[in-house]
Amino acid sequence: MNDKPATGFAQDVDAMTLARAQHGDMAAFAQLYQRYARACLLLALRLTGQRQAAEDLVHEAFLKMMDTIGSYRGEAPFGAWFKRLTANTAIDWLRRQRHLATSDADELLEHAVGMDSDNAGLIDADSLLARLPPRARAIVVLHELEGYTHAELAALFGQSESYSKSILARALKRLQALATSAAHASKVAL
Amino acid sequence: MNEHELNFHDLAAGLPARAIEPLPTDLWPRIAAAHVARRRQRRWRRVTTGGVALAVIAAVVVSAFGWRHTAMPVTDWQARAQALELQLDALPLPATSAPMARLAESEIANLDSSLQAAYDRGAARHDIDPLWQRRSELLDALLSVRRQQPVPVRI
């Protein structure tokens, strides 16, 4: 049994707050913001790799949520519903920025940024992700961290499941190489 | 490591977690203000769209009514009266005039005077038309009476 308190989108929200929010109560919306803004920012940051864009996405995702919360029927936990809305908002943003223009798997991963020795030792998990091109990064984040299935990713990107599987496998390989290189650079620096 | 076993959690396990700066404190007030503004805008759009729709419906109703109004056949009472007069002239004269016929003939004579006076003073069409209409109705009645009256047989 896991007694750790829920964090991020896994946090629950009480039925009263939800009902008030569904009636447009601003105080209830403020409570939802308090609860989910950080999770929303983290996901947006991972998907876009840019702080300013991520803040803009939080803004956009909350506005969307406030507009559409009336359609939330409670089939899934509210956090899961809102996470999906945030992810869709981020994918739409990437699409608008034409970051998803390239769909060719090989061409896509050619743009992965390499590791230079100057900052290799400072790398964290999110910086590692930021080195992937947007589409590959989105697939890794959504599949590995947010639990999307390949079928869902295929629908989201308008590609086949095998495309999503192929991008994921290649992206993880690339990340592994980057992580190894970072670890090596770190040892050398010491 | 096998390609199938590769996953991001394992890769990131040895890496430090990124410290995320908190969101700007003014972000929620900005979101709330934008939401309120959008809601107001939508309400206003609904009101104006409703108003425009009502105006369009009213315009359609008015124009349809106007069209029907203008499309209704306008009776030329003067021409009708003249046509009835010809029909009346074509009938043989009755031996005696029925009281109804006499009444109609007398009123027609009065109407003729009124018509003459109206034309003399240059009256407008809408003043003259009712006189022609009444004359047509009287001629109609007179025709019916005449058709029912016995005709003198010539020997």
Description:
Helix content of chain A is 68%, strand content 0%. Chain A has helices spanning 15-22, 26-48, 51-68, 78-96, 105-110, 125-130, 134-145, 150-157, 161-189. The termini of chain A are far apart. The relative contact order of chain A is 0.11. Chain B has two domains: 26-72; 77-148. Helices cover 72% and strands 0% of the residues of chain B. Chain B starts with 7 loop residues before the first helix and ends in a 7-residue tail after the last helix. The model of chain B has no long low-confidence stretch (mean pLDDT 81).
How would you sum up this structure in a few lines?
Chain A is mostly helical and 190 residues long.
Provide key terms for this protein.
A: 190 residues, Rna Polymerase Sigma Factor, Chain: A, Arc Repressor Mutant, subunit A, 2 domains, 0% strand, B: 155 residues, mainly alpha
Number of strands of chain A: 0
Percent in helix of chain A: 55-70%
Roughly what percent helix of chain B?
Answer: over 70%
Strand segment count of chain B = 0
CATH superfamily of the largest domain in chain A: RNA polymerase sigma factor, region 2, helix turn helix motif
> SSE order of chain A, as H and E?
HHHHHHHHH
| Structure classification of chain A | mainly alpha
Q: Note the beta-strand portion of chain B.
A: under 5%
Largest beta sheet of chain A, briefly?
A: none
